[in-house]
Amino acid sequence: MEWKTDWGLRGRMVLTGFLLFALYIVFIAVLSRFVGLFALVAIMGLFSLGQFFFSDKLALYSMGAKEVSEEEYPELHRTITRLSQQADLPKPTVAVADTRVPNAFATGRSQKKSAVCVTTGLLRTLDDEELEGVLAHELAHIKNRDVMVMTIASFLSTLAFIVVRWGWLLGGGDSRGGNQAPVLVAIVVSLVVWVISFLLIRLLSRYREFAADRGGAAISGKPGALASALVTIDSGMDRVPKEDLRDTAEMNAFFVIPIRSGFVGKLFSTHPSTEKRVERLRELEREFETA
User: Fold this and answer.
1) 172: how many CB neighbours lie within 10 A of its CB?
2) pLDDT > 50? residue 246
3) 233: helix, coil or strand?
4) How far apart are CA 210 and CA 277, in angstroms?
5) pTM of the complete model beyond 0.90
6) 3-state secondary structure of 105
7) Is-catalytic flag, 250?
């Protein structure tokens, strides 16, 4: 299947970026009337730049993942090398995380500075074709520059959260009977901005998974293999010990299938439901067969 530019994905990225930028302008305009945010913005800007430039290393470190050589995992390297060539991408860093949670993720600020990580649980759970489908999905994320886009989009949400949590510290030390109205306004505005930006980012994140599924099918030519892998991983989550799920929960947004917790977790998930993704992949498989 020929790789095609996903204009739907690009359009949603542009729209989300515009809305987040508009929120950012309103956020700064309102808060600048009450509190000084220059230092906070500067610090968070530097933090975000550091996160952006070292996103691959930070993500791998968070998972306890280690870069592996071709001698250690020859089949994994061969598969990623072949799929990278099919996707017209530089070969990413290959890493493995030692956890029973069956999952995988891609990270990195650009196509040349990227990494694909799989867990030992995933390698034990999937067959060769299913693993190929998952790896192609992760390479589609890299090709679409999803990590870069989501890192930039998350900046405002992170900044607003900091102000929500520590907004009372921005009152200039006037906490002993002083006028706290400016601080309260700052917190309320920050909370509203954080909620809206949170929902916008979740919306974009769910669409990017659909786009990566389609892109992964284009790279591997086997949408059915990815569909089968998603079903296998989803069903396998129930057999993973809860302590392992807790240890990896912070990487939810990056995983091929997230770890959900209850109704609220599903409602605000970074990913669409497995059922919807499998349904679309099966439709794509029928398109392949009739093409």
Assistant:
1) 11
2) no
3) helix
4) 7
5) no
6) strand
7) no
